[in-house]
Amino acid sequence: MPGEALLSVVLPALFLVTGVLFPTELAFPLRVIVQISLPPMLLAAGGIGYAVDRRIARRRGSRFAATLREALLLLAASILLGWLLLVVSNGGHVPPMSLARAASTLDFWVWLLLIATQWLFSAAIYRALDRRALFRESVERWGHGDPAAAYRSFADEAGEALAAVRRIRRIVRFFAVWSIAMLILVEWILRRPFPVWEEVLLGAALLVELAVMKPLGAWEEEQTLMGEGIRMNERERLVGNASALLLAVPCLALAVLLGLAPALLPDSLIAAFFHWLASLFNHPVRAVGPPPPPPAAPAFPTRPEILQKLAGGPPPAPSLLLQEILRFIGRALLVLLGLATLWFLIHPLIRGRRGAGRTPFDLIASIPRRLRLLLSALLEWMRSLGAAVRASGDVEGVKGLRAMIARVGRARGRRAPAPSASARRFVRSFFRLVRWAEGKGVPFSGSFGPLEYARLIGAHIPEAGPAAEGVALLFERNQYSGVPLSGQALSAYYEGIRTVMKK
Amino acid sequence: MSRDSEGLADTTAPIAQWARDAAARIGRSFRGRAEVVELALVALLCRGHLLVEDRPGVGKTILARSLSRFIGGVFHQIQCTPDLLPADILGVSIFDQASGSFRFRQGPIMANCLLVDEINRATPRTQSALLEAMAEGQVSVESKTLRLPDPFFLIATQSPLESEGTFPLPEVQKDRFFLSLTIGYPSRENELAIMRAPFDRETSGGGSETDPTEPPHGPGLAGIETIAAMQEAVTRIHVADSLRDYIVEIVSRTRGEPRLAMGVSPRGSLALYKGSQALAALRGRDYVVPEDIKEIAGPVLSNRLLFKPEHVARGVTAPAFVDELLSTVTVPGYEGSK
Question: How far is the C-alpha of B242 from the C-alpha of B281, rounded, in Å?
Answer without folding.
Answer: 19
